[in-house]
Amino acid sequence: MKALVIGGTSGLGRALAAEFLSAGWDTAVTGVREEAIMDFSAAYPAAKVSRLDLSVAGAHARVETLISSLGGVDAAAVCAGLYTDDPEADWTAEEKVIAVNAAGCAAALNAAYGHFRKKGAGRLACVSSIGGVRGNARCPAYNASKAFLFNYLEGLRQNAAAAGLPISVTNLIPAYVGEGTGCGPAMLAAVLAGRRSAYLPGYWRLLAAVYRNLPDLLHEKMARWHYVLLKPFMRRSPRWKNKT
Fold first, then answer.
1. CATH of 2-243, one of 3.40.50.720, 1.25.40.10, 3.90.1150.10, 3.40.50.300
2. What pTM value is reported for the model?
3. Which of 44, 55, 145, 214 could crosslink 101 through cysteines, CB 3.0-4.6 Å?
């Protein structure tokens, strides 16, 4: 069995790629930063590692070419992402986030999905974020781009169902898990089981339901105390520790 993990040299992508390798899958991994690529290659010499930047035009064709060079794959996970703390909503920063998290990830997902449609089956997954549930004053483009992924994945899932094809599409939804240490087994299990969505940790499914249904006026007033309210659920996150 062959797997491709795009954005798999660090963070949650690395955790998932490591699980595929441990499970005996022939695994190809891509990254952007050279140091992360070299570190992953040293840690997992059995993996096929290459550089792929989804923010550069032509990502769709490059992913198609990569899949073809691998002789096809049975599972593909898009784990690339860019976070920018941008309370001033500066467009230079916002544009970069959108280029990676929305346009770039969609290009990769579409290329992999197209491969699975031709093959007639496959497992497709993407790491989104709890941020996709609602907007956030500190990172408008980040949350919006993750909300885009929620809907894009749902659309691909419905497309597969309409075509009568056994293509699973899994939305992996992390919530303040930092580098994702310990999340690998849960992610792999969700992908192999063909789950529609998997919250990491699982209890965030309930918290997300409450948050999603907050009245708009209350949500808008939350900007000042949003992270204070969530602090008990963020203590294990390096991102949170760096901000406090």
1. 3.40.50.720
2. 0.90
3. 145
